[in-house]
Structures
1.
Amino acid sequence: MSVLSVPSRSVHKRWWQAHKATQLLGVHLPHIAAVGLLLAYIVLAVLAYFSTLQPGHLGIRIGLRGDTPCVTWVMPAGKAWDQGARPGMAALSVDGQSLAGISEDALPTQAVTEAVLLKPTGEELPLKVTAMPFGQSPMKFSLLALGAVFALLGAAVVLRRPDLQAARVFGIFAGFASLALAVAPDSGGAGHEWALITQVMTEVGASACLVPLVVALVGESVWPRWRFVRPVPLFAGFGCILAVVYMASVFARPTWYEWIRPVLFFYMSMSVLSVVGLLAFKVDPERDLVLRHQSRLLLWGIVLSSLPFVSFTLIPEALGRSSVLPVHISILALALMPAFFAYAILQHQLLGIRRLVHKGMVYGITAFALLLIITFAFVIPLYDKVSGDRYPLLISAVIVGGIVLFFPLRRAAQWLTDNLLYRDTVGYDMFLDGMYENLVTSDNSPDAAGGIANHLAEIMHLESVLVFQGDAPGQSKLVASAGRRSQEALQHLGPQLQASAQNAENRNYVELRWESDSLILITLRSAGRYLGYLLLGPKEGGEVFVDAEKRLVVTVAPFLALAISKGQVSEELRDLNQRLVKAEEMERARVAGDLHDGPLQKAILLAMDGDAISQDEKGEIAHQLVSELREVSSRLRPAILDDLGIVPAIEWLLDNLPKRFGLVTHFSLEGLQEEDRFSPDIELALFRVSQESINNIMKHARATSVQVILSKETNAIVLEVRDNGLGFSTATGRNNGLGLSQMRQRVVQLNGSLDIHSSPGNGTRVVARIPLGS
Amino acid sequence: MESAPLPLRILIVDDHQMFREGIRRRLEQEPDITVVGEAASAEDALAKVAQANPTIVLLDIRLPKVSGIELARRLRQQWPDLKILVLTGYDFDQYVRAVARVGVSGYLLKTAPQDAVVQAIREVAAGGAVLPPSIASKVLQHYSVDSSAVRDGMMGDLTLRETEVLELIHQGIRNADIAKRLAISPRTVEAHVSSIISKLGAQSRTGAIRVALEKGLIK
C-alpha cells in the first residue's frame, strides 16, 4: 500500500502500541528524535545568531615561505576567498601593519579585517571586511524563521507518523534543512569555519534525503535495484563522501575547494532535478486521485521553491560563473518548500497525516499574510513618491486597496491552484455517464437515489453520500446512502442536519464541518418542488471540495432531483393506480348496491303477476322506480352537464346536496352567462372539481357555507370553491387523498392549474384555472 | 271548402324506440292527430321537420350528441311557427328554465299519463302553453328572489368578486398581490377595479373606497 493512499486514523496509534519497547531511558524514540531536532536547531540558530554579532574576519592565515610572508590558508567561500585571495599569494600588509621583513614570531597568524596581497601577476589585491555583514541584515531573521518552520514541521511529522518510512525520511530531511538554514546567517557573512562546514554538510544531507523522501512518498520501493546497484543509497552515499572530502579540504587543502564546489552544486542540482523528474513522470496517472493531487502539489512546491536557487545560483556556480540573482533572494524562494509540504499535509493527508494544525487556523494566517503582502506590494512602490504629510492618507488608501483586492486575488489564486492541482477532478462527462443508467433504467425512487449515491461516492471519491427525501427539510428522511463512513457521518451530523438543510433551502449549497473535514449539502428541487437534500462528503482522505466540484454538483443537482423524482413519480403512479382500482371497485359496488336495493326491488314488484298490489300502487311504484333510476344515473354522470352546460350543472349539484349537512350555498358567475357552453372536457373537469371539492367539504370541513364562483377571464375560466370550515395545513396535507390528485390531474391535463389555499381555522379555497383554447 | 279541421301533424323526437312506439300508438288512436314521423337524433329531426312539415314536435331533451335544448333553439330559428312540446324524464328546474328561455309551448314529464300528453297537444295546438303544476311552481320560484341556489352575484351594485377586490384595495394591497391572493390574473384585477370605479360613480380607487364605505358595501 502506498503511504499516500487513504490513511486510517488508527494506524499510528497501533504503531505506538507495538513500539512501546522502542524506548530510551523510558522515552519513546520519536519523541527523542523530535525534541533532538528542535534542540539542535535552537542551539545552532542561537550560536549562529551570536557569532554574526561578532565583527567579521577575512578568513586567511599568514605564514612564511622562505622569507616572504604569504597566505597559507584561505577559508573556502569566505570573505577573502570571494575577493580573489588564494593560498600561496604573498602578503604585503595585514590590518594596517606592513609585513616587510617581519620575523616569524611577530607574524600575525590571522588577518582579521584588512589585508593587501600580491597576485602572481604582480598586481596588489586589497582585501576588506565589508562594512555591513550579510548576517546583520533582516535576511538573518528570515533564514532563522524559515529554519524554524522546517524544524517544527519535521518534528511534528516524526511525532505523528513514526510508523512510516517516508515520515522518518522527511524528519531527517527537515532536520538537515533547518540546520542548514540555522547556520546560514553566519556561514554566509562572518565566515566562521564551523558554520561553513555545518552549512555545506547539512545542505548535502538535505539534498541526499530529498530523493529517498520523494521515492517513499510516491510509493515506490526506496531501495530498488538497477541490475547490480541500488541507486538511492548510491546517491546518498556519494553525498556523504562529498561532504567528508569537503570538510577535509577546508582544513588541509583549501585549493581542493576549487573543484569540490562545482561538484557539490552539481550534486544538489541533480537531487532537485531528479525529484522533479520522479514526481512528473513516475506517478502513474491511473493511480489514486489523492496521490495524484499530493504529488502534483509537491511537484509545484519543489519546482517553485528551488527553481530560482538551482537555476540562478547552483547551476551557474557549478559552471564556474557567479550567481545570476543575489543569493539571499534565490534562497528565500526556498520558503515555499515547507509551505507546500504543510499544505499537502493539511489538505491532502500527505504522509497519511489527517491533521497537523487546525485548518481554520492555517486559513486564517494565510489570509492575513496574503492581505499583508497585497497591501505592502502597493505601499513599497508608492512610499518614495509621496511626501511625508500624506503618509496616513497613503496607508489608509493602501489598506482599503488591500481589502478591495483581497477577494479577486484570492479567487484568482483559488482558480490557479484548482487548475494546477485538480485538473483531473471529476468531470461532467464522467458524471453524466453513470447518471444515464440511474435516470433511464430505474423506476423506483430508493433505487434511483441509491444508484446516484453510489455513483457519486465512486466518481467523487467520497467517504459518505446521504440522500434525504421529503416534502420539507424538517420532514426528510434518509432514503439512500453510500460510502464506507456514511453511518458514522449520519451519527455525527444527524442533529444539525435539519437546521443546515433549512439553511440550504434558498442557496445553492451550504458547507458543513465534521472535525477537520468539509461536507456539502445541496437542496434537491424538481419543477420548483422541494424533494429533499443531498449530503456529500467527507472526501476520501479529507480532501477539500474544489470549486469545480462544487459547481458540478450544483449544476447537476437538478438532474439528481429529476432522477429521484422520476422514481418518486412512478412510485406515486403505482400507488395511485392501486388506489384507483380500489376506488373503481368501490364505486361499482356502490352503484350495484343502489340499483339492487331500490330500483331492482321495485321492478320485481311490478313484474309480479296477480293482485298482490293494486293498479294504483303499481303506478306509485313505477314513479318511484323512475326517480330512483334517474338519481342513480345522474350521480354517475349528470345528464344536465351535457344538456345544459357547466353553470346549470353546478347549480343542480348545489341544489341537490344532502340536506343533513345544512350547507348554505352561494353560486356566482362573473363574466359569463348561465347558458354559456365550453368544450365538454373543460365542463366535465370543472364539474368534477366542484363535485369533489364539495364532497371533501361535506366529509372533512364541517363548514356551514359553501361559495362557488365561476368567472370567465379573457382566455381562461376560473372555478373557485370556498368554504368556511376547519381548513388544514397545506404543508402537511399535500398527499391528501385520491380525490385531490384526480382533481388536479383533470385540470392539469387541460393545461390548467389547481391551487388549494388553506390553513387551519381559515377554511379552504380550491381554485381551478383552465385556459380557454383559441 | 271543408271546414273540418286539418289533423295535427306530430313529429316525435326521442332516442328511445320503445318510448316513441308507445306514444305513437296512443296518438294514432286520436282521429285529429297524425304522427308524421319519428326521429332519434337532432339531425334526423331537422331533416324530418323540413320534409314532413309537422305542426307540433314532441321533443325529448336527452338526445345523443346535440341536446334537445339546442335542437329546440334551431327549430325555433328555422321555423318560428313550429310549436314544441318538451316531453322529458327530468324535472330539474335548470331544464325547465333552459327550455323556457328557448321558447317552447309546453313541458311535460314522461311519467305523466298519456292522456295528459294528448290533452297537452291539443292545448298547444290551440295556442296555449302547458306546464304541469309541479313544474310551474319551480318556474315561479325561480323568479322569487331568494329561493334558488343561483345568485346573480350582486352585492349592492357590485359583484361578490368586485366587493372582494374592493376590500383588498381598502386594506392597501397592490393589484399584483390581489391577483395572487385571489388566484386571478392581474389584468382581471384591473378590469374589476375599473368596473368598480365606474359602478360606484367614482373617479379613482380612493374615491371608490370612499363611496363604498359610505354605502356600507365594505367595512
2.
Amino acid sequence: MFLINCPYCGEREQAEFSCGGEAHIVRPKNPPDLTDDQWSEYLFMRKNIKGIQFERWNHSNGCRRWFNVARNTATDEILKIYNMGEKPPNISGDALDTPSGEPEIGSGNISTSYTKK
Amino acid sequence: MHKKPIKYSVFSLFKNALSYHENWQPVWRSPTLKTEYDAIIIGGGGHGLTTAYYLAKNHGLTKIAVVEKGWIGGGNTGRNTTIIRSNYLWDQSAGLYEHALKLWEGMSQELNFNVMFSQRGVMNVAHNLHDVRELKRRWHANRLNDIDCEWLNTKQVKEFCPIINTSPNIRYPVLGATLQRRAGTARHDAVAWGYARGADAMGVDIIQNCEVTGINVQNGNVTGIETTKGRINSNRIGVAAAGHSSVIANMVGIRLPIESRPLQALVSEPVKPILDTVVMSNTIHAYVSQSDKGELVIGAGTDGYTSYTQRGGFNIVEDTIMAVVELFPLFSRMKMLRHWGGIVDICPDASPIISKTHIKGLYFNCGWGTGGFKATPGSGWVFAHTIANDQPHTLNAPFNINRFSSGELVDEHGAAAVAH
C-alpha cells in the first residue's frame, strides 16, 4: 500500500488508481508491415525492471485521468510524476548493490540484506 | 563422494530420541563452490530443486549446482497457499499439471521425506449462471483428459462441506461446484527440504546466499555465470527464478512477457479442525483451506502493479476476507496471525514458459504466476528433460517462448479456476 500524488486531485491511496503498465511503448506506425516477432514485442514483451520503472497510472476511482509515474519497484517509492506525452525524466534513485539484491529500507524481502545484530 | 544420508524411519527416530535428537545429521551439505559444473540451476525454490533432482535421477547428470540468493525454499516456495490440483481446461495444461499431480502422489515415498500431501479435495464454487456453465465445461474437459472431476449441486456442496453458507439470499449464492477429490494440499517447506535432501544425496551442490550477478555468453553459447561468490563455468544453465526471472533475462537481453507482482496470503490463529477440504471461488475471489496446525490458509489476489517488495495493499486483503466471510460466516470473528506477499511472475496467458532461448544452453522456466506450487515436481521433471536433451519434453513443448509470436497461447485466465 502506498500513496500516489495525483497531479489533478492530490494525494490518494494506491487503491484508487489502476496501473496501466510500462510507459513509453509506442504503437507501431505501420501495423500491416510488422512481422509476428515485432507484434509480439509490442504486445507482450516488457522490461519488468527491478529498480526505477516508468509506468502509466490512471486515477480510475477519482478523476479518471492518466499520467506517468517513475517508481522504484524494489521499494515502491515514487520518484516523479509527469504528464502523458512527456519524455521519461532523467533520474536515478538508490541503485541496488546487485541486480536482484534488496534495498536496506523499503522492501519486505530480507533474504539478502538482513544482517544479524 | 560424501556420506549417504540416513534413511528416515521409526527406527532412526527412536535411535535419535535416545540422544535427545541432538545428533541428527544435516539434511543437506553446505558444499564449497566448484569452478565448473555440468549444469547450473539458478534459483533454489521448489522448481529449481526438482529440476536438479530429476537431472541427476532421470538423466544421470551429477555435477550440478543450484545457486540461490537467499535460502532454500525461502522465496515463493514458502509463500504460497499450498494448493495442489490438476483441473485445468486446456489439454496442454491438463497434461502438465496432471503429470505433476501423479508425482505428488508418490513423492513422500520416493523422497523418504513426509511432504504431508493430503488429498482432501478441491472444490471450485459457482455463484452465477456463467460460473455454472464455465465450470461444467471444465468438468467435461477434465473427464475427457482422464482427470477426476465431479459436479456437485448446492445440496451436495452443503453435504461435502457443511460449514459453507448455501443460503440463496447471499449476494453471490452457491449454485454448485466442481470437485477434484485427488487434489489437496502439501507442506510447502517439506517439498523444498525433501527435494534438496534427495538432490544432495545424488551429489548436487546446493549453494545458498549466492546471488547471480551476470551470465557469460560467447558466440551465442552460454559459458557460465558470475555470482557474489565468484565465477562458475557451465554450458548448461537453467533459470528457475520465479519473480526475478526478468532480472536474469535482462542480463543477457532476453525479452520476456512477464510482469512481477505481489500476491498476498494470510493465515488465521489456529483452531480445531473445521474445514477438511479446499474451497476456491473465482467470482468472489477467495480460496481457503485449513492447515494441519489448524490455521486457516487464505489466498488473496495479486496487486495490479509491478513490484518486488513482497508486500501489497490492504484493500486486496480486505476484498478476499469479505468473500471468505460471506461464504463462511462462522469465520467472521477469527483473528489473522500472519500475512505476507510473494513476487509472482505473471504471463499474459497465465501459463508458464518452460523453454529454450536463442542463447544455446540457456533455458528458462518461469511465468508460473500465481499457480506454480502445484506443478513443482512436474515442472522440474520436464525442465530437466529440456536441459539434458536440449529439446523440450512433449508435455512442455507447447509452453515455449515462441508462442507469443506464433499466437499459440495457452489461455488459462479464468479457466484455471482463479483469475488474478
